[in-house]
Write a structure and sequence with these properties.
The protein is mainly beta and about 575 residues long. Helix content is about 5%, strand content about 35%. The protein is built from four helices and 34 strands. It has helices at about 175-185, 330-335, 400-405, 535-540; strands at about 5-15, 20-25, 40-45, 45-50, 60-65, 70-75, 85, 115-120, 125-130, 140-145, 160-170, 195, 215, 220-230, 235-240, 245-250, 255-260, 260-265, 270-275, 285-290, 300-305, 355-365, 385-390, 390-395, 440, 445-450, 455-460, 470-475, 480-485, 505, 510, 515-520, 525-535, 545-550. The strands form eight sheets. It has a six-stranded mixed β-sheet with strand order 12-11-14-19-16-17, with no helix packed on it. A six-stranded mixed β-sheet has the order 23-22-27-32-29-30. It is globular, with a radius of gyration of 23 Å.
């Protein structure tokens, strides 16, 4: 496959599945892979049909070089609407191909198609792609390997080989029906029935041992694990028994190497991790389980790191001692080590002065029952669960915000998302005032001046006494994580502790429960960009907003024109 081309085309076909082609710009068609009309998968002793790419779960990895352009034609042959998002790809000037439904495009309806143009710029390392429509990303996702530009190499010794490690969720039931039912009743959606590594639950689940994913290694060699958290609703600890890990990349950018026994990875986040096979020849478990505080899947998924050679394997591989599900110190101690390389080969440009300050509270909420018979609502005290940013619970519009903004169509969104909370209270107290329980509903955005410097302080709250970490993702940008702390943010003292020298450049930030995180970026990518919690149930409940960056004064600082074909809503 001609991955060295500067521009590639990929065609995905969704049926009860999707199918994939690779097509170069010369239109030479590479043979399709596993053209199937149905995809049935058996997990946990039962079989069901799932939406997949190419019949694969997880979907196939895309292998690209820094700066490549990828074109993807998606044909939807399934029964649900679908869109695809290229997570971590900045898409300079090109929000038309970013993917979140009703934000930057109307969904691809069954029987329709849409061609995405994915433009890589500064990204290097591991990214991923996933569906961005309802909960279809549970099975529609895959890795993106972004290699260094030809003629350059990694800022670490080249590994012997590279292995994708995708953490995921498996539901015995229909995942789309799961969230549809939860939204109708106001209840928590059902938890996943298993966590997975590369689509397999692992040895600790029923009917799963035979399929457990294995990594075969040679003693003395180093392997690059491209780790992706595609889990729907849980942050994850991961560890390999008796082996040290070295984290060298985060969200498509390199960082100063971190030697560690374990990692903590949030939903949506990606990490480049080096594993050296330096233990005695044997089999060792790789295990992952949730870090969570409220509702979570409390099972453990496993894979096996197995050394090549002649030796007698034990009946049970060595098992790692993972941090406890509520070990906040383990999380803090890991995250505080993130620092950018910040050298001449990998420079950073952290804004030192700020034009636009935003403070955004992150809350769980409830809404009044919409039924006259309130017993039909299954949230707290017969209400309906909700979520909000700055007490605004995001409402998905009937047409995409990007088209409405570009074509100046009124009535789709309001450009008045608040720059700070309308009501100030002790956000992290154990007891909350009653008037913060019910958010306002709305489709609101905040417009930013082109090339302005922006700081956003994300403040977690304990509304509903449901404080938990919130992995927040901003489309269209990587940003600098300049600060993170516990309690209520103090705008006098906390900025004094910011890291403005070598903060990590990321597209995900884990806002700590009962705490805050501060990010900075330059608004130099014009377009409409979604910002949301990557815990899927929180996003479904409205924990989201939209940032709109205005055009600059030239063609090259303005949004690209829309593609000729846009799907109708």
């Amino acid at each position: 496959m001609e991955f060295r081309k500067k521009s590639l085309m990929v065609e995905f076909v969704l049926l009860q599945f999707m199918s994939l082609f690779l097509v170069s710009m010369s239109r030479r068609t590479v043979p399709s892979i596993n053209w199937l009309k149905e995809t049935s998968y058996t997990r946990l002793c039962s079989t069901k049909k799932i939406i997949t790419v190419n019949g694969q779960f997880p979907g196939p990895a895309l292998h690209l070089y820094k700066g490549d352009i990828l074109r993807v034609n998606v044909y939807n042959g399934g029964k649900y609407n679908v869109t695809l998002h290229w997570h971590g790809v900045k898409q300079p000037r090109n929000p038309w191909s970013d993917g979140p439904e009703y934000i930057t495009q109307c969904p691809i309806k069954p029987g329709a198609n849409f061609t995405y143009e994915i433009i890589l710029s500064t990204e290097e390392g591991t990214l991923w792609w996933h569906a961005h429509s309802d909960w279809s990303r549970a099975t529609v996702h895959g890795a993106i390997f972004v290699y260094p530009k030809l003629g350059t190499t990694y800022p670490f010794p080249k590994p012997h080989s590279e292995v994708p490690i995708i953490l995921g969720s498996w539901y015995k039931g229909d995942v789309m029906l799961n969230i549809k039912t939860a939204l109708a009743t106001g209840a928590e959606p059902n938890m996943s029935d298993a966590l997975t590594i590369n689509g397999q639950p692992g040895d600790l689940y029923p009917c799963s041992k035979q399929g457990t994913f294995k990594i075969m290694v040679d003693y003395g060699k180093t392997y690059l694990l491209r780790i992706i958290n595609a889990v729907m609703n849980e942050e994850m600890f991961l560890k390999v028994a008796h082996h040290k890990l070295r984290v060298v990349g985060l969200d498509g950018a390199y960082i100063k190497p971190i030697k560690t026994n374990y990692i903590l990875i949030t939903p949506g986040q990606t990490m480049d991790v080096l594993l050296t096979a330096d233990q005695s020849s044997n089999s060792y478990y790789m295990a992952a389980r949730a870090f969570a505080g409220i509702t979570y899947d409390n099972t453990t998924t496993t894979a096996i790191v197995q050394y090549n050679g002649n030796y007698t394997s034990p009946a049970t591989p060595s098992f790692p001692n993972l941090p406890d599900y509520n070990d906040t110190n383990a999380v803090t101690n890991f995250i505080k080590k993130f620092k950018a390389l910040a050298n001449k080969d990998y420079p950073i440009d952290v804004p030192k002065t700020i034009d636009t300050h935003l403070t955004i509270t992150i809350s769980m909420n409830t809404l009044p029952c919409v039924y006259s018979n309130t017993s039909l609502c299954e949230g707290p005290n017969n209400t309906m669960l909700s979520a909000s940013l700055n007490n605004i619970s995001f409402v998905q519009p009937d047409m995409d915000i990007l088209q409405a903004y570009y074509r100046k169509i009124g009535g789709v969104f309001m450009p008045n998302f608040p720059m700070e909370p309308s009501y100030v209270f002790n956000y992290t107290a154990d007891e909350m005032p009653d008037n913060v329980l019910n958010p306002k509903k709305g489709t609101k955005a905040r417009i930013l001046k082109y090339n302005s410097t922006v700081e956003i302080v994300l403040q977690g709250t304990n509304v509903l006494q449901s404080a938990e970490d919130h992995p927040v993702h901003l489309h269209g940008y990587s940003f600098y994580l300049v600060g993170r702390g516990s309690g209520n943010f103090n705008n006098k003292t906390d900025p004094k502790g910011y890291n403005l020298v070598d903060p990590p450049e990321v597209n995900m930030v884990g806002v700590p429960k009962k705490g805050w995180a501060a990010i900075r970026f330059r608004a130099d990518n014009p377009g409409v960009w979604f910002m949301h919690c990557h815990l899927e149930r929180h996003s479904s409940w409205g924990m989201a907003t939209v940032l709109i960056v205005e055009n600059g004064g030239t063609r090259l600082t303005s949004m690209k024109r829309p593609p000729r074909q846009l799907n109708p809503c």
